[in-house]
Amino acid sequence: MAKFLRDEFIYDVSLTEDTLIQISESFAARGAPLLEIANNSGEDKKQPFITFILRFDNKGYKLFSIDDLLHHFRRAEKIERLIITLETAESISSNRMLGDYLELRLDRNNNDNSFVQVSSDRQDWVDASFSSVSEVLGRCSNKHGWARSTWSTLIIQLLGVVGGFSVSLWAASKLSESLDIDNAFVITFLFVLLLFSNAWGYANQALLRFVHSVYPSIHFYRPDKDRKNWLLQGVIAGVAATCTAYFLGGLLSYVGDFINELVK
Question: What is the model's pTM?
């Protein structure tokens, strides 16, 4: 039975062709000791092999070479998931209860389905394999985590509240003029605000999903396919910077006026 296991969830990495080649080379290097052991023992069930599973454009392929992987990586419109596995016939037949295996799973659509996992009855192989893959991934980290942070969610919520209040005031000022009832402005304002508050819950979730899709945790980066995404990222970053500057400016102005009043 495999005695040692290491695993870790993976977040916020951008993968290019060069990154895939480095990861493939890392897997091949970790398979070399297993191949030597299999050759020395003469046990075919301990022979290691590497497989790649790439899912894109609503279909998946199981591949057996880095060249085939890169071919599909280049031509895919939208890559959903990549799984790279180093294992032996022994680990497969025992449902990974025995033998050695190293697996890297990268899922663009599910942040909690991306991880690296390695197991063996040799601790040194486990530690070396885990460190080898983690080192490559560490060099391609991105800053997309801010899009899923609490602060990002709070900012979107506050912008929605301010926007809803402003729209309600504007709509009330326009509609109340044509209503021949008492307190037309107040009634219209409350009615529009109520409509917005009910719609905002759904709009907020859709907006969060949109931002998360523009800034994915697992980003399969291809320059010729990502031009639209660059534009969307620029727009979102510009809006965020403008809103932040506006609120900070208003806060500093208020603090300045408050201090002046104290000094007087």
Answer: 0.79
